[in-house]
Structures are given as structure tokens and as C-alpha cells.
Write a structure and sequence with these properties.
Number of helices: 12
Radius of gyration: 27 Å
Largest sheet: 8 strands, mixed
Distance between the termini: 52 Å
Length: 425
Amino acid sequence: MHDIKAIRADPAAFDAGLARRGVAPAAARLLAIDAQLRGVQTVQQEGLARRNDASRAIGAAKAAKDDATAATLMAEVATLKETLPALDEQVRDLGAVLTAGLAELPNLPADVPDGVDESGNIVVHLRGESPEFAFKPLEHDVLAVRFGYDPDAAAAIAGARFAVLAGPLARLHRALGQFMIDVQTGEHGYRETVVPLLVRENAAFGTGQLPKFEEDLFKTTDGRYLIPTAEVSLTNLVRESIVDTDSLPLRMTALTPCFRSEAGSAGRDTRGLIRQHQFEKCELVAIAAPEASDAEHERMTGNAEAILDKLGLHYRRMLLCTGDMGFSAQKTYDLEVWLPGQNAYREISSISNCGDFQARRMDARCRVRGEKGTAFVHTLNGSGLAVGRTLVAVIENYQQADGSVHIPEVLWPYMGGVKVLTPGN
């Protein structure tokens, strides 16, 4: 959500920020609604003040036995009581229109490159070594069926973009999730949290999924939404609250199923485990003081990278351009892992600093201990990592000529003694 006061102060800068994201100017439209709202509010406040003054004056007139003045004042109060409800309704309606207008606009970009799509993204750095093969590496979906991936069973049960994993592949999937949550809690200081998978409309609005992206969500018959990421539940833990800056940053993590309709991805990644309606993710969320969020963003990105480093996977960090960032983000890094079977880098984590954009939607604030004023917190989120995509990366990068897959050593404690996946085991 944007601050209408900031738009009033510099409408040109606001429109310039929107233009960088390919969005048409909106300041004039929003300020016109704002001016109308403030005009009605002024009339409303003047009416309330006059009603209170007149009500007090009625008592004085009656005490002075000035019946004519009392009658005139009583008539004025009666008229105000009839007109004020209409003004109240106008204020509510105009406020809702202004809120809706502000809510439909994306966050303004920070220090990121301009661009219309992913071609404008910039490589920040590369890490790790890509494996060399004496054979043509296979894509993950071909490999995975040897170890317990059954796309036909999933399609029969639920349709396209679902997966059934069994046996050693299911064990490896579980191992990856447990490894991620252990690293993020034990080494990086995130607090493990179990959160609802179903959320109310106001929670999805708070993090920016609603109203603009409702088609990407699964909605239940009672009006709740399945979470597309634990970001929604974790970030909303501070909604409508004021936290002491002494307690910041709050760092939270959750390993949860996630659900996405993938409404805009028809024809993309229809095979395999890359793009699913249901998947698991280790989510990272931080609530930071405004002046600390840039440093927290760098830290969180490094925390996600640590998983890839420990798994020995080759990847690159990308700084996203204005045209490729998510709706709520002001700055985003993507981590893209190398998949030798596809001969391509694919996104495995997206880490964003949302500034105070989500906090305004949730009314989440912070206060310096002993001071009266408050400020909106800054919120950050990222994957640390997406479990299914990490599974894809492991089996593609650690495949062997004999059809087996070596398991990275850091996962051995989670695998019950299994160090190599072999067909049929």
C-alpha cells in the first residue's frame, strides 16, 4: 500500500516510480479522490463541531429561559443529525475508493535496473562449479521415475501439475526439507514456526496477493484461501500491532506445503516437478526496522545461498529488473540453480525486500522504546529453499553414468544410511 501523504508531497516522483514498472500515471487520479475525501471530511468535522457547540448552547439558553434561542438551536441540531449520517457514508465510500486505488498499484522500485522482463536482470555473482559429465545428462523427470516419481498416479488422483513421490525419492524430498529448516534455525537464527495453511482474505490482502492476484490462489467454500507461500501466514503475525524496535529484527521460518493455481503459466513446465499446484517450501520472513532492511535483505539472501553452497550446487544470484519483480517487492534477488539436464539456470529462490508496502496494508508498526511516535516496519521474505526444485537440482547434478544418483554428504544423516539412489531401491 502506498502513502497518500507521500503522493501529495511529490506526485511526479510517484508517477516516475510507477513508470519504471510499466504502470500508467496514477497520482492525479488518486489525489482527486483524496481531495474530494478531505473536502467531505472537513464538512463532516465542521458539522460535528457545530452540533456539539449547539447542543451545549441549548442547555445555556434553557437555563437563561431563552426559549426562542433554544428552539432555534434544537432545530439546527435536528437538521445536523439528519445530514451527518450521509456525510459519514460519503467518507466511508470515498475512503474505500481511495484504498482500492492505492491497493491495486505495485510497490515502487528501489535501486534496481530498469527492464521490461527477465532479459533486464543482472548477474550479481556465480557460485560453485557446474558438474562435467562423460555422458549426456538426463532431465529430472526422466531420472525421477526410476526412483519413485509417478506422474500418472498423480494425474489420476488430482490432474495435471501434481506429483506422487514414493520410496527413496520421497525420503530424499523429506530429507531436503528437514535439512533446510535445521540450517535456517540452527545456524541462521530463524524461529521455526507452524502456521495455518488456510488464511482469511485480510491476510492475503496484507501481503499483496489480493485483490490483484486472486486467480493465482485456491479459494475454499468458506471464503478462506490456501497459502501460496508461508510468507502470508508468517508476515501477518505482526499485523495490527506495534513492536519495540529493541525486539527487531524478527526472523521466522516455516516448512509448509504451498498451493498455487499457476493461472498464468499455461504451457510452461508441464512436465516434471518444476511448476506444481502443490509443493513444499522452507520460507524465510524477517520483520525489520526501516533503517535495517537493506542489510537484512543481504543477510537473508546469503542464508538462502548457504543451502546451495552446502549441497555443492552451482548457481547464480540475479538482481531483478523493474519489469520482473513481484507486486509487493521494491528489490528482489533471485537465486538460479544450474540444471545440467536442461542446460539452463532455473529459479530456486526469490528473496525480496518489500519496504513498508506490506506493513501499511497490515498496519504493522514499530516504536523506539520510550518514544511516542511509530513507524511502519519493513518486511522481507524469501525461499530458503523450494524443496521440489532443490530435489530436481540434486538428482540432475549428482546423476551418474550407471543411472544412479549420489546424495550430497550433508544429507546423509537424514537418509537413514542411504547414500546413493539406485533404480528399484
